[in-house]
Amino acid sequence: MHLSSVVVQALKLQNSILAKYLIRNVLILTAAVFMVIGLVIFGNQLVLVIKESLEEGVPIAELMPLVSFKMIRDVPLILSLSLFLAIILAISKSYKDSEAIVMNSLGIGDKHLMVFIQPVVIVIFIFILFLTTVAVPWSKQQRSMIMDRSENASEFSFIKEGEFQEFKGGDIVFYAEKVKSTEGESTQDMEKVFIYALSGGQRQPIITLADQAHKYTDAKTKSVYLRLKEGVRYHGFPAEVNKKILNFDQYDLQIIDGENNRGTTSVTKIESKPTLDLIFSSDVKEIAEWQWRISQPISVLILSIFGILLGKTSPRGGKNLGVLTGVLVFIVYNNALLVAKSSLERGEISAFVGMWWVHLTVLLIIFVFYAYRHGKFSQLIGKAF
């Protein structure tokens, strides 16, 4: 009895040492893979955000927050891929170095390895769950607010005092003798305003002169207007016979139609909603969104099991076969989740089926793969015959 307890304690110590060794390798490889993939993706995102921001006239001060919010959005996907590949590499390395063969001789198999890496997997699972359900929706909400401010401010937020400027590809020429910006350039007051615009299908020129102008955004429609005061409008050039002249004390000129942006902002609002609000919703798009948020961390748990099996290779096996297979599995898995999300949003599948069928399918594949690797099918065939 005393001897057996000593053996149990020895096995526990042995397993603890092996678990720590495996966890350390997985953590180091996860960090390395994350840095490599992150540098590529985040660098590309930085270039795209800067290009997009310059095209849409987003102030320079808003660039870094926009880049940060996009990085937060991409971290769950990059981290889950990094962990998956790290597990494959760590297990593959142990087989290349014949370490796993020694462990197998001690009775430590795939099930033990799956248990050993669970502390790392669970920590990353919780972190990704926090990101997808809290941090990412918040970052999308903040990014939407920045973009809305920029869109509502429009190109006219960046009018330079005392200079002729072209907007909308030359369809509008604007001049203001004096410009005063307030509330971070969301509103502007101008004096001695000249506007030349081409209007209608016949591209008829309209010239507007006003002593004062005030730019504002309608709270309900989100349309942006110039409120012109003490001015005159010329339909056609002043020298033309068929010109029309309109004198006005006050005239509101719409420069951005708020209706044009509603299609895109509705999706953004769903993506930025708190997860708890989505869970209790009956709208299919909101159901699809919260299932997508939950699916990303769930895939981490499932892929960690798959990673153990894919990393199991012989010393003579292909060096990068497990990694290449892992990348392919990850791409197919995530694309299947995206297809399921789109189908759920369109009402083609029920919310009960949702994206869960993708996870169950992958679990079934893992079960079949595990049974094949351990000769379970051969045993069943042998018993049958």
Task: Describe what you observe in this structure.
The protein is an alpha+beta fold and 385 residues long. It has two domains: 2-151 and 266-384, no CATH class; 155-259, no CATH class. Helices cover 61% and strands 17% of the residues. It is built from eleven helices and six strands. It has helices at 2-56, 63-96, 99-105, 110-116, 118-153, 262-271, 275-279, 284-311, 321-345, 356-373, 376-384; strands spanning 165-167, 172-182, 187-199, 204-217, 224-235, 244-256. Strands 1-2-3-4-5-6 form a six-stranded antiparallel beta sheet, with no helix packed on it. It is elongated. The two termini are 43 Å apart.
Tell me briefly what this model is.
This protein is an alpha+beta fold and 385 residues long.
List keywords for this structure.
61% helix; 6 strands; elongated; alpha+beta; 385 residues; six-stranded antiparallel beta sheet
Number of helices: 11
Order of helices and strands: HHHHHEEEEEEHHHHHH
Largest sheet data: 6 strands, antiparallel
Assess the beta-strand content as a share of residues. 15-25%
**What general outline do the C-alpha atoms trace?**
elongated
Looking across the biggest beta sheet, what order are the strands in? 1-2-3-4-5-6
Domain module tally = 2
> How far apart are the termini?
43 Å
Query: What class do helices, strands and sheet pairing give?
Result: alpha+beta
The total strand number stands at 6
- Kindly report the average pLDDT value: 78
CA-atom Rg in angstroms: 31 Å
Query: Can you tell me the residue ranges where pLDDT is under 50 for at least 5 consecutive residues?
Result: 261-267
Query: What percent of the residues sit in helical stretches (DSSP H or I)?
Result: 55-70%
Oligomer: single chain
